[in-house]
Amino acid sequence: MDQHHLHEMLMTMVIALSGGAILITLARRFNTSAILLLIGSAFALGPEGLGWLHPESLGAGLRVIVSLAIGLILFEGGLTLDIKGYRGASLLIRRMLSVGVLTTWFVTAGAIKILYPGFAVSYCLLFASLVIVTGPTVIAPLLRRIRLVPKLHNILHWEGVLIDPIGVFIALLCYEYVIGAAAGAAVLTLFLRIAAGIGFGVAGGFVLAFILKRRLIPADMYNVFSFGFAVMLFGVADAFATEAGLLSVTIAGFIVGLSRPPDLENIRHFKAEMTDILIGMLFILLASRLRFEQFIDFGLRGALLVAIVIAVVRPLALTLSSIGTDLSFKERSYLGWVAPRGIVAASFASAVGLSLAEKGTMTEAVFVESFVYSVIIATVALQECSAGLLARLLGLQRPAAKGWMLVGAHGLARKFARFLKDGGIEPVVLADVNTRSVGDARLEGLDARVIDARDPKIVEDQPDLNGIGNLLALTDNENLNALIGQRWVRQLGREKVHFWGSKSMTDRPEETIGRVVWPELPKPTLLTQELQRREASLMTANTRFTGEQAKSVQMLAAVVDGRLVLGPTEEEQEDLPEKGKFLYLRREADYLALALRPQLITRTNLADLREVFTQLVGMAARVADDLPSEKTIEALLERERTAPTALGHGIAIPHITSTDLKQRLCVMAQAPNGAKFDAPDGEPVRLIFLILSPSDDPEGHLAILAEVARIVSDSTMRERLLEEADPGKIIEIIQGHYLPGATAG
Q1: For residues 734 and 333, what is the distance between their CA atoms, to the nearest angstrom?
Q2: If you classify domain 403-588 with CATH, what class do you get?
């Protein structure tokens, strides 16, 4: 193989891969059909245009690429199959996969024979078998864009995934018959393929599900391993019976999806991205082989044939399949119109065309590609562009999803859910795995469910959740909230996903997906406890607070003209109208302010650690007479030896819990001359926060630690706290840090 040939092969694959990925991204960005862009670009870059693409340079390798790519596409389709959706429309789907398939096949073959009497019946059956399939590659993007009612969504999705292997097998049966195999041998081969595909698919699916569920591989390798396993399964099944790999990976994907192993949503997301890349590559490679002349020669007679496939064959197949079902006239009309063809039809048409050309039957070879690609272009151009409008006209489109899912059913989430409902935001659903919290929410008349919000598929599993278009994750684990947000972004969009996180997350916007809200607040359950102890209160108002009234409270949210504004900044609040529904939080005291009092603030010139602790613990003991001083001092010194508490920048936060304490205490000391802590940066400690908490209050202890850490992370705050001599003023400075808009003394 010469250097020029190698260069052509390389450039062809580079253009196909990069061009396909870029065009599919653009199509998603502008909410349009990717297939039309791909076919148009293939013509422009291929021999008919700029001549940059040379698919013929790949030789037999093109067929290998096509087979593997289609196998992976079908594996991803199997992963997304929803058994509940199938049960809801199983009779119709079974009919469409039997009666509908046979009707499409035979009626299309009859139309070809009538319009092209020169073709043998065997060739007519072969050509007709190639347009049986619709396929997930065109149905899935359409369903994402249109938001059909769940019933029709499930029907089209299941038909698109399951009809691919059926159509492929029928096409292979016809092809074997056409190339000269005896009819009996062709049928026997077909059954062998089906048996091999089912057998390897079931076995492979259970093996992969077992490996994933038992976590026998590292969690960060699930996607890579699943990809490699699908390729291996395809190869093993295909080695046993040619083309059995397609059915095997479809069934394996379905079994894995049904078993719901850990991180299933991540695997689906990875496979969906791979599918997009493969679809783009295949369309560019295969469509670039076409010539304008063959479509011109296809002419009016060919256009009439395509019209029959779209306007006669599909409606007839759907009508016969739906006899005895509960489909309404509007639903039948819609399903009878929507049946776009995709990459499976295109790839098999190209493969058949190549084989027929090798046999010397050029007329048939040119016809099959012209016919199938004409059907693809026409169905995509007409149906994908009109499907949304038709759904709206027939009333089959779900309304815009404006509802909210709140992840967490604790007290704060319940109060916020009530605020949303009172503001006219519907539906509002609380999701939690804690059955007790869910039960409490239900007793308050709220819609709460025991579900794991890490899997966005719950919306498809529960059709009444289709009105959910926004998400707010309010668990105590900010990393879990970020993970939930990441998984829901693909379904809802970045601007619709919100979650609670600390201020450190807002400083790393490039690492988060979605919007962090209320970062200055403590953990949601801690704030719930504050509300229960009346240390904080939530207030609703129909008029926006202004001036002094707004300084001691924080606006959590506002409902204005039916629109929810979450966690508005001070500038955003000023732009809000005066009338609406507003939710304010007044924190009467925070954890640190409750533990820190003027009599627990001092200035010390001591440097020795034991002497410093003796002074600070003595101050605490005067407030809490149940505190054993010597025992506490020794515990603090031991902690410093094993786990130093100096943070650097002149800050130390020594802390312990004690079974002898009944309240939280924080003693603050200014040490201008520096205390001898083991600081990581070697600087002497000038600000000391000694935190003492009851052993049975770990959450409160951690909350004080977190609040102190947030305060001292600000260099300006450190200097102000070190320089201020008045204990009362020091407390005002700290309170000003926690009450946005409040004036510090």
Answers
A1: 67
A2: alpha beta
DSSP 8-state class, residue 148: B
Answer whether 3-44+62-394 and 403-588 agree in fold: no
Q: Tokens for 687?
A: 């600000």
Angle, in degrees to the nearest 10, between helices 343-359 and 61-79:
150
Burial of 445 (0-12, 13-18, 19+ CB in 10 A): exposed
Helices (H) and strands (E) in the chain, counts: 32, 16
Q: How far apart are the C-alpha atoms of 560 and 600, rounded to whole Å?
A: 45
Q: How confident is the model at residue 741 (pLDDT cuts 50, 70, 90)?
A: very low
- Calculate helix-pair angle for 183-213, 150-178, nearest 10 degrees: 140
Q: What is the CATH number of domain 3-44+62-394?
A: 1.20.1530.20
Q: CA-CA distances (angstroms) from residue 507 to 512, 716, 723?
A: 10, 17, 28
The string of pLDDT tens digits covering residues 466-513 is 678 899 999 999 889 988 988 888 778 888 999 998 877 766 665 567
∠ CA 662-415-565, nearest 5°, is 120
d(CA 444, CA 451): 18
Amino acid letter, residue 730: I
From residue 196, how far is each of 68, 133, 184, 359 by CA, in Å? 17, 21, 18, 29
Task: Kindly tell me the burial class for residue 507, based on how many C-beta atoms sit within 10 Å of its own C-beta (0-12, 13-18, 19 or more).
Answer: exposed
- Compute the mean pLDDT over every residue in the chain, rounded to the nearest whole number: 83
Identify the bridge partners of residue 448 per DSSP, sorted by sequence position.
Answer: 430
Give the tokens for residue 336. Answer: 């009878």
Give every CB contact of residue 44 below 8 A, 6+ residues apart in sequence: 50
Contact 541, 582 (CB under 8 A): yes
CB neighbour list of residue 473: distance below 8 Å, 6 or more residues apart? 407, 408, 453, 480, 481, 484, 485, 498, 499, 500
Q: Strands (DSSP E) along 468-512, which ranges?
A: 468-473, 497-500
Closest among 61, 36, 77 to 284, alpha carbons compared: 36
Taking only the tens place, the pLDDT of each residue in 684-707 is 999 999 999 998 888 778 878 888
Question: Peptide bond before 740: cis, by omega within 30 degrees of 0?
Answer: no
Q: Where exactly are the structural domains of the chain?
A: 3-44+62-394, 403-588, 593-738
The CATH superfamily assigned to 593-738 is Mannitol-specific EII; Chain A (3.40.930.10)
Q: pTM, whole model, 2 decimals?
A: 0.59
Torsion of CA 369, 374, 375, 376, to 10 degrees: 90
CA distance 529 to 410: 10
Active-site choice (498, 655, 701, 737): 655
Q: How far apart are CA 108 and CA 128, in angstroms?
A: 5
190-242 confidence digits (pLDDT tens): 678 778 888 999 999 999 989 988 888 887 788 889 889 989 998 998 888 87
Whether pLDDT at 671 is above 90 = yes
Q: Count CB-CB contacts under 10 A for residue 469.
A: 19
pLDDT tens for each residue of 295-321: 888 889 999 999 999 999 999 999 999
Residue 157: active-site member:
no
